[in-house]
Design a protein that fits this description.
Elements: E1 2-10, E2 13-19, E3 25-29, E4 31-32, E5 39-45, E6 48-49, E7 52-56, E8 64-69, E9 75-79, E10 84-89, E11 111-116, E12 125-134, E13 139-140, E14 152-155, E15 162-171, E16 178-181, E17 189-195, E18 201-210, H1 213-228, E19 243-249, E20 255-261, E21 277-278
Parallel strand pairs: 4-17, 5-14, 12-20
Antiparallel strand pairs: 1-2, 1-16, 2-3, 5-6, 5-7, 6-13, 7-8, 8-9, 9-10, 10-11, 12-15, 15-18, 17-18, 19-20, 19-21
Amino acid sequence: MQAAIALMNLPSGPVVRVYSSLENYRDTPVRAASPKNPIKFAVGSPGRRSGLWRIWSPKDKADVYVQPQSNESLVKVSLHESGDWRCQVLFEKFDSADIRLVNLPDESSRIIDQWAQHQPFADGWTGALTVVVPSADVVDIPGDTIKKIQTICWTAEPPWGKAAEFRITLIEKDMSALIFDWPSLDRLSVVGAYRVVTGATVVVTHHRIEQADMVVQALARVRAEQYAGLPSTFSTVPGTGPRTVASARLSDGYRIYYDLALTGPPTGSQLRFTPDAGT
């Protein structure tokens, strides 16, 4: 099925429009960038969910920040306007029973991972980052303190064996519509969109993907390795919502982040997973 997504300026203001046909489309307003008004999303609902993610930009810069949100939130991804993209620790001191971090490549630096901005995949359209939540990682969190408030975009739990995929895309101003093939267009939605100071638009889309058996088994290996490496002081009680993030690196440098649950020793066959991983 062929579809289109477009950035449009209407009399009422800019919108991101997703067409399922010439007659059928859905508009999402594009708001101004503000760190006080981030895009927030999660899969499921309070009490049974994924991790919570947020995306925002300053009012006076075109930098984009992506962060898994928790009580501690000591790590974030910074997509700088300069093209220097990185994932790094926010504070020098992070010795806490509630936090477990990967070993830093350089102990003198806070940087966990660093790469250059990708080339556009179409004229004016640049893929920034993808967050994937497998169905197995939408789990029960007894006594969950997260509330179902309007500022969080909650997407439905995917069927078993599938995953929710959130793509962050940067669109330069005055770009034409992007035509693409979409096998299940009814699952495509725009989570949110905002415009940075340069006029470019940050768009977050959601859809569902099939998970290959090799990916399912590989992610089981990541969960097992991360769980085995936890210190005895790290609580894995379901009510604390323990999670880990595994990063996959494609051949062109594109990053995919897997939001995974750490609720107990995984079972079943497991294959080696080559991407980096850490909480």
